[in-house]
Design a protein that fits this description.
By secondary structure, the chain is α/β, with parallel strands linked by helices. The protein has helices at 12-26, 37-42, 45-54, 65-74, 91-96, 106-119, 143-150, 177-195, 208-212, 214-226, 360-366, 371-377; strands at 6-11, 30-35, 59-62, 79-82, 99-103, 126-132, 159-166, 202-205, 230-233, 260-265, 268-272, 277-278, 284-285, 290-295, 312-315, 318-323, 331-334, 346-353, 356-358, 384-387.
Length: 388
Amino acid sequence: MYTRPVWAEISKTRLVEHYRILCDIAGPSADVLAIVKANAYGHDALQCAPILAAAGAKWLGVTCLEEALSVRKVCPQARILVMSGVWHGEAEAMIEHRLTPVVWEPLHLDLLHAAAEKIGSPAQSVAVHLEIDTGMSRQGVRSEQLSLLLDRFATASALRLEGVMTHFHSPEILDSDGTQRQIERFVTCLDIISARGLQPAWIHAGNSATLLVDRDRKALASIAGTRGARLMLRPGLALYGYVPRFSGTHDAATELQPVLAWKTRIISLRTIQPGEVAGYSATFQAVDPTRLALLPVGYADGLNRQLSNHGSVLIRGQHAPIVGRVSMDLTIVDVTDIPGATIGDEAVLIGEQDGSRITAYDLSDLAQTIPYEVLCAIGVRVPRVITG
Ligand SMILES: *Cc1c(COP(=O)(O)O)cnc(C)c1O
């Protein structure tokens, strides 16, 4: 049971609406894989994954086996793509729970082959997706090593090359040479794969930005189409209501609204006099009589400490500046200009209140990070409540 007044509200309506909008943009010839890794970017994968599955998502994307197993419990039918390879001790569970690993290291194939043999998996029964490193130099097989890896997909093998994917390093830079070059390398590798007589059912690439940029999405659709495969697109951030920041995204992207609101309440108030200080290391000193409100939320909940003396929260529709250092479990805000602020008042860290709003972008700008990190940082101690 949660009684501490700190919580995150997850709008089911917005999440479902976003999934539909992204499917519409992707079009009938492409599939949308809903990324729910990292606890659905802090939105609670156990609650969001079934909502997305019920909205029609046939594919869900997670990082690792642990995430996949917890999503499998609540989404028995979904296809689950496990995007960070296979590690020792994981391959049997991958097969038994019908998970679809992304592979690129010979080790991944060794582990899966050994597990398939032990379980007695029939030929071609274990679907895997092969990632190609087309230029991000992070994960994926490099083109020089591709042929050697493809030797492992003989017809008698338990493994079936069901998908081929890559990831772009700068998808949010419109008309980026980088993306163009990566797409070209992807095509070269897809040709090598076709020449070996392998025909993946899905070809996929990129992220939210890739889905929202007409040119890249259309280029990928044609690449998949000419190879008799379906295109799959893999949005994460856009599902949760944040559009990558660049112009040139699809018009429908303006309809996306933050899915998560993060809220707390005032639990204490005091007025300090000129010269008095507030918080650790006395980084705030009052010049005038100052009314301070205490919020039961801190960096242990994921409120970035860079917001100390920097950020604000919404109380009664107005911005109340954070004063002093954000503590582990507590934060002080200035409510001098918000007459009537009282114990029990709702304070919005991310979200909307009486026509004002704070987004994860606002916090990420102040904390010099990205909205992904702001959302992922919201702690496990903060209960996620599904709203309409
Ligand atoms: C996280 C991730 C995505 C989604 O990225 P967004 O920028 O959140 O849309 C897509 N593909 C891969 C491989 C990822 O790891």
